[in-house]
């Protein structure tokens, strides 16, 4: 759409929303204050820079062989910059420990990681006004080959991973200090059983002890926010996951940490959108991993589907936006990886834009009055409101293409940059 038409469409939309009592200018200001944490691992299929390690050790699977994936930190950062330039707003970058940089030779040992191994990332982020989040990597490593890390019965293995967790929190704290806002450090471990275990209790007790050791180092919450991510099952942990939802919810509440709800980590008919208001009744904060499960935890790129829309509405209706950290979590190598970030991030932001445009007070009043008929009728009519014009205006005002024009930039980047990479086209 041309600039003039985008502006005219917005004027009409502004009037239409105003008639419902919704101030679109306020909506756009609120939308601009929301940051997503972009998952660096979409850029290289969760490979990292260690040059080894089998992803399937952790029950994760990245399928596809789209050409041109980033092979090193410079390429990954360049790809992230391209994606960020096509996403409206100010966002964050989420790193994993396997993205530590090293000059040739062997990679730094995971339990010996230090902030200096991320100096390149920290400098890059600082120059661009980006903040960082961080994740210890408890997979793709010989010490995780047994399928167990923090709950391992092998004391040597368990200790190794405890030290890795501690090292990663030191790194997270240092990132938080440098950027002046808390770095979220999220712990996800693959530990679990393919078949029914006999002694679940022992494994969970060891996980608890390991987490206690990792969290014993005290850091200011203004610098570091701890988060724990449960899962229903993974490949190879179909019968029992040690770090289950109940385990981490209880542990997070006991220790004042956050729980991370990954939208792919529940039964297919369970809805994370329905869990938000329950968790936040008892927890100060929540981390969301926005993904799209297709039949299972398949890590597809989020799209504007019913569940993403419902999640965005819950965040807005409950007034939770300041208490929830939003992170993307997917890895799809069947499509252009940079476009994957843009599609996923734009879908989440568009869902939030639509949710912010809702006349929540009117709907709430109808519900309080027991007028469920008018509530349903209004919710349906709202779907036809011109939110696309508001979104387009927001994109244009943020200096990013409002419509599919952003794909032309991806195509140009692919032709001039990523196709030059080995295996490119
Ligand atoms: C795995 C978890 C976890 C990972 C990333 C790479 O099932 O979702 O968040 O996807 O840490
Ligand atoms: Zn996740």
Strand neighbour order, sheet with most strands: 3-2-1-12-9-8-6-4
User: How many E-type strands?
Assistant: 12
What is the general shape? globular
Query: Residue ranges: pLDDT <50 for 5 or more in a row?
Result: none
CATH architecture of the largest domain: Alpha-Beta Barrel
Q: What is the chain-wise order of helices and strands? A: HHEHEHEHEEHEEHEHEEEHEHHHHH
**Helix/strand class:** alpha/beta
The CATH top-level class label of the largest domain: Alpha Beta
- Radius of gyration over all CA atoms, rounded: 22 Å
Number of domains: 2
CATH superfamily of the largest domain: Divalent-metal-dependent TIM barrel enzymes
Helix content: 40-55%
Main sheet: strands, sense, barrel: 8 strands, parallel
Provide the list of bound ligands, each named once: L-rhamnitol, zinc ion
Strand content: 5-15%
Determine the number of helices (DSSP H or I, runs of at least 4 residues). Answer: 14
Could you tell me how far the N terminus lies from the C terminus, measured between alpha carbons in angstroms? 31 Å
Structural account:
The chain has 425 residues and is an alpha/beta fold. It has two domains: 1-33 and 358-425, no CATH class; 34-356, TIM Barrel (Alpha-Beta Barrel), CATH 3.20.20. It contains 14 helices and twelve strands. Strands 3-2-1-12-9-8-6-4 form an eight-stranded parallel beta sheet. Strands 5-7 form a two-stranded antiparallel sheet. Strands 10-11 form a two-stranded antiparallel ribbon. Helix 3 runs parallel beside helix 10, helix 9 crosses helix 10 and helix 11 runs antiparallel to helix 12. The model has no long low-confidence stretch (mean pLDDT 97). Bound molecules: L-rhamnitol and zinc ion. Residues 229, 262, 289, 329 line the site of zinc ion (ZN).
């Amino acid at each position: 759409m041309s600039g003039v038409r985008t502006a005219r469409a917005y004027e009409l939309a502004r009037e239409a929303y105003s008639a419902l009592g919704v101030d679109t200018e306020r909506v756009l200001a609120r939308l601009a204050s929301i940051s997503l944490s972009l998952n660096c691992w979409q850029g290289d299929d969760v490979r990292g820079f260690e040059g080894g390690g089998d992803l399937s050790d952790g029950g994760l699977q990245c399928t596809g062989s789209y050409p041109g994936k980033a092979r090193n930190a410079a390429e990954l950062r360049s790809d992230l910059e391209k994606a960020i330039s096509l996403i409206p707003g100010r966002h964050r970058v989420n790193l994993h420990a396997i993205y530590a940089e090293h000059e040739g030779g062997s990679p730094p040992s995971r339990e010996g990681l230090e902030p200096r191994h991320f100096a390149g990332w920290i400098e890059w982020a600082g120059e661009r006004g980006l903040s960082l989040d961080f994740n210890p990597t408890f997979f793709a490593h010989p010490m995780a080959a047994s399928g167990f890390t923090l709950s391992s019965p092998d004391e040597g293995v368990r200790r190794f991973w405890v030290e890795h967790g501690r090292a990663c929190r030191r790194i997270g704290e240092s990132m938080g200090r440098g950027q002046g806002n808390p770095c979220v450090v999220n712990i996800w471990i693959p530990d679990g059983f393919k078949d029914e275990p006999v002694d679940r209790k022992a494994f969970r007790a060891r996980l608890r002890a390991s987490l206690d050791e990792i969290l014993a180092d005290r850091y200011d919450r203004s610098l570091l926010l701890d988060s724990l991510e449960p899962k229903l099952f993974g490949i190879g942990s179909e019968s029992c996951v040690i770090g289950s939802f109940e385990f981490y919810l209880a542990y997070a509440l006991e220790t004042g940490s956050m729980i991370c709800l990954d939208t792919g980590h529940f039964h297919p008919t369970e809805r994370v959108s329905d869990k938000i208001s329950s968790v936040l009744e008892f927890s100060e904060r929540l981390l969301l991993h926005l993904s799209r499960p297709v039949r299972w935890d398949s890590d597809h790129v989020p799209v504007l589907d019913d569940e993403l829309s419902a999640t965005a509405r819950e965040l807005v209706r409950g007034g939770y936006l300041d208490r929830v950290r939003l992170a993307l979590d997917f890895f799809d190598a069947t499509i252009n990886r940079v476009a994957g970030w843009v599609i996923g991030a734009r879908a989440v932001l568009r869902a939030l834009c639509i949710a912010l445009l809702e006349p929540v007070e009117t709907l709430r009043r109808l519900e309080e009055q027991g007028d469920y008929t008018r509530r349903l009728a209004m919710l349906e009519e709202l779907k036809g409101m011109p939110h696309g014009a508001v979104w387009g205006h927001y994109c244009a005002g943020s200096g990013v293409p409002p419509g599919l024009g952003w794909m032309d930039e991806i195509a140009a980047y692919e032709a001039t940059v990523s196709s030059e990479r080995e295996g490119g086209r």
